[in-house]
Amino acid sequence: LSEGLLFSSPQAIMQGESVSKPVLQVINTRAIATGNGPPRYRVLMSDGVNTLSSFMLATQLNPLVEEERLSAQCICQINRFIVNSLKDGRRVVILMDLNVLKTADQVGGNIGNPVPYNEGQGQQRSSAPAANPAPSKPQQQNGNLSGAGKSVAAAPKYHAPSNQFGKASAPSSVKTPGGSQAKVVPIASLNPYQSKWTICARVTQKGQIRTWSNSRGEGKLFSIELVDESGEIRATAFNDQADKFFPLIELNKVYYFTKGNLKTANKQYTAVKNDYEITFTNETTVVPCDDAQHLPSVQFEFVSISELENKPKDSIVDVIGICKSYEDVTKITVKANNREVSKRNVHLMDTSGKLVTATLWGNE
User: Fold this and answer.
1) Do the beta carbons of residue 23 and residue 138 sit within 8 Å?
2) Under DSSP, is residue 193 helix (H, G, I), strand (E, B) or coil?
3) pLDDT in tens, 154-179
4) If you write DSSP's letter for every residue of 221-280 in order, what string do you get?
5) Over the stretch 77-108, which tens digit does the pLDDT of each residue have?
6) Would residue 112 be called left, alpha or beta, if left means φ above 0 and alpha means ψ between -120 and 50 degrees?
7) CA–CA gap between residue 68 and residue 134 (Å, rounded)
């Protein structure tokens, strides 16, 4: 294990320093409720000396926990991570990419006798004997984890199905139009308690400007969907902000977004997997990012067609399959507003052998 690496200065994960692929042991994982969004998993990890619970899995790594590949007592190598500072000063380490080097069954227990780390008091060590002593301290060597008298080959690297990441990464800070430096944070860390933030994200969906009129007045709006390595979020601009940002923001381009109101997402109007959404304000700034090959273009969580019958009504799912057949476009009249719309049925099949009908509406 990378003994003491979590907290020893200057190369400390918790200080956001550059640390090269630390090897740590999982002590426990715990699901955190996120409403209608995908679950988030908090991970308690050990370096053999201390334990820390400030680790959070990026949602694209959820299958590692759900398929029990990442479980208590397994040993993993952290390939990429982001350290985010919360408003109260605490830090959260978001795990973006990792390898499971040794399963829980292969390890057989906790390594060393680690004690909880109290940030600000330095590295703590326990003088008590190890509860589950290892015959020798495991070391990462040429892709194998050696120890206990023999070498164990590393488990195959897990590749999240939703993304393929390059080696490039976005700058950790960006200059705002006022000239000050703003720290870039991952989308997954955004919450309504933050007032100042900057994200670097790709625009994966851009709607047209729509107008409304009711008893309270009239106005206009347009919405976009944003994706980075940690997750996705919806953003909406109203009235003056809609006029300002609609011609500036292009589909599939990457931008720095600074400031904006964060509120609980209205799931009636969005299928984006995030409990929050952004509303642009007079203080919102949007700056193009030219070096962003690392950002994904879209996020998927595919399910088999055979599993659809077990999903609750009105669930939002991602399906991939081949088109077995399709029907001609037809016109129907919507009774609610007597408006005529187009529809087409497309029949899809996947490797499960099941068939499902997808209906496309309007310009789709």
Assistant:
1) yes
2) coil
3) 333 333 333 333 333 444 555 555 55
4) EEEEEEE-SS-EEEEEEEHHHHHHHTTT--TT-EEEEE--EEEE--TTS---S-SEEEE-
5) 988 887 776 666 677 888 888 999 999 889 88
6) left
7) 23
| Residues facing 157 on adjacent strands | none
Strand pairing class (330-334; 139-141): unpaired
DSSP H or E stretch at residue 106: helix 104-107
Pairing between β-strand 232-238 and β-strand 322-326 as defined by DSSP bridges? unpaired
Amino acid at 141: Q
Taking alpha carbons only, the member of 97, 3, 102 closest to residue 48 is 3
Host H or E run for residue 173: strand 173-175
One-letter amino acid identity for 306? Answer: S
Are the C-beta atoms of 224 and 206 separated by less than 8 Å? Answer: yes
State the residue for tokens 């509120």.
263
Q: How far from 272 is each of 32, 71, 223, 233, 255, CA to CA, in Å?
A: 18, 28, 12, 6, 19
* Angle 294-295-296 from CA coordinates, rounded to 5°: 120
CA distance linking residue 307 with residue 302, whole number of Å: 10
Domains of the chain: 13-153 (2.40.50.140), 173-288 (2.40.50.140), 305-361 (2.40.50.140)
Q: Which of 155, 157, 186 is nearest to 98 (CA)?
A: 157
Give the pair of three-digit tokens for residue 202. 């790709």
CA-CA distances (angstroms) from residue 150 to 107, 136, 137, 345? 12, 10, 12, 59
More reliable by pLDDT, 282 or 131: 282
Question: CB–CB of 55/43 below 8 Å?
Answer: yes
